[in-house]
């Protein structure tokens, strides 16, 4: 036996048989199994790297904080042989350009659906017996990827649907370059319906851009409900709601909060309009007014904002306390977009080719959703922990283990 310990230590830390290790059945029940449903856009001739392995690396690297394709490739190169083998790379590893050529050719909308379905398998169903008034609320909002450009110079805009109870983005569609979010609303509903099987009894919340008669009819036809604000794009509805005798209607629910350098009071009033014709918007059952009063703890300055909304649920099914909760959930998708910008520097990523921008956004959504289902509230901290513990991360995503410890 050699007196030099280096060879002995090397044999202990990197066994020679690890490169031939096969992925186990238990691991295939996790992310790798889910990703096997993604169609391979590459030509079958000369394939050197497995599709599921490349996609799993991209998913895991972004979960560990990678904000670009170069960072994804660096994360893979920094793994030890055992970790690489667990993701399907038995010998060589790809360059960043190889990963990017794959990502830009993927069907971004289909990838979003597949990863959302995988994340949903990691969540526990809500116990309706313990939460009798629970309703699943889906927030819809769009986001422009400011650093990404198409060949014609236009920016990439994505419309997403977030399950506010789990933090999982259920679907994401790319808005046509010569259009806006309104025509993309129905395809987004279609994608959510394919994933969930049915939209019955779900509540959709969105900003005033989607206060559209066609949207209200579409959602009602699917058995779902719409909670939507009324602003200038629906002037008749806005005027009708604003001129209701709100002074005679008692406050239904009020909250007071202190934080972020201010004191805030939110008061909700709701009323069922029984006059002939009711509310001038399809399927609307209640008119809602919410008043937000904010006082700066530093300057003492007080500001007040009033918003008017409608909902297609009756007062028996949507009480003021429920409305307060559901209205505030619309902000959760804004928080998601903020995390993508701040933690993952999305607006600085200048992806310009194919479906690359949308695919990268899907990977960021998946990372945030994964850490949310793992119980993390600080996503930046969760990504740093995942980067420090790659083996734990790989175990969590490739097996049936519901959490990363």
Automatic annotation (TrEMBL):
Entry-linked Pfam families? DDE_Tnp_1 (PF01609), DDE_Tnp_1_assoc (PF13808)
Q: Describe the location of the Transposase IS4-like domain by residue ranges.
A: 135-364
Q: Which residues form the H repeat-associated protein N-terminal domain?
A: 33-119
**Highest taxon of source:** Bacteria
Q: What is this protein called?
A: ISAs1 family transposase
């Amino acid at each position: 036996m050699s007196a030099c310990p280096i060879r002995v230590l090397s044999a202990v830390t990197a066994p020679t048989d690890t490169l031939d290790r096969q992925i186990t059945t238990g691991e295939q029940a996790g992310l790798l199994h889910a990703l096997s449903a993604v169609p391979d856009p590459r030509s079958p001739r000369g394939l050197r790297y497995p599709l599921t392995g490349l996609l799993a690396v991209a998913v895991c690297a972004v979960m560990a904080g990678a904000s670009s394709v170069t960072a994804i490739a660096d994360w893979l190169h920094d793994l030890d042989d055992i970790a690489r083998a667990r993701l399907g790379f038995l010998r060589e590893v790809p360059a960043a350009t190889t990963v990017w050529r794959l990502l830009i050719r993927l069907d971004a909308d289909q990838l979003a659906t597949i990863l959302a379905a995988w994340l949903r398998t990691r969540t526990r169903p809500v116990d309706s017996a313990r939460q009798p008034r629970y309703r699943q609320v889906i927030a819809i909002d769009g986001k422009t990827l400011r650093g990404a450009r198409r060949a014609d110079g236009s920016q990439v805009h994505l419309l997403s649907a977030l399950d506010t109870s789990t933090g999982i983005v259920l679907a994401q569609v790319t808005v046509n370059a010569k259009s806006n979010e309104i025509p993309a609303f129905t395809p987004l509903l279609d994608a959510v319906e394919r994933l969930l099987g049915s939209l019955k009894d779900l509540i959709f919340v969105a900003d005033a851009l989607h206060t559209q008669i066609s949207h209200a009819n579409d959602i009602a036809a699917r058995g779902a409900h719409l909670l939507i604000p009324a602003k200038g794009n629906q002037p008749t509805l806005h005027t009708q709601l604003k001129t209701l005798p709100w002074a005679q209607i008692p406050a239904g629910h009020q909250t007071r909060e202190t934080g972020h350098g201010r004191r805030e009071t939110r008061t909700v009033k709701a009323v069922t309009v029984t006059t002939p014709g009711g509310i001038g918007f399809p399927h609307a059952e209640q008119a809602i007014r919410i008043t937000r009063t904010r006082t700066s703890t530093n300057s003492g300055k007080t500001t007040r904002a009033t918003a008017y909304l409608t909902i297609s649920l009756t007062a028996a099914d949507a009480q003021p306390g429920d409305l307060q909760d559901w209205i505030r959930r619309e902000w959760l998708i804004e928080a998601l977009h903020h995390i993508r910008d701040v933690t993952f520097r999305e607006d600085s990523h200048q992806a310009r080719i194919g479906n690359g921008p949308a695919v990268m956004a899907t990977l960021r959504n998946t990372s945030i959703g994964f850490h949310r289902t793992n119980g993390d509230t600080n996503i930046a901290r969760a990504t740093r922990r995942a980067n420090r513990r790659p083996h734990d991360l790989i175990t969590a995503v490739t097996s049936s283990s519901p959490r990363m410890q």
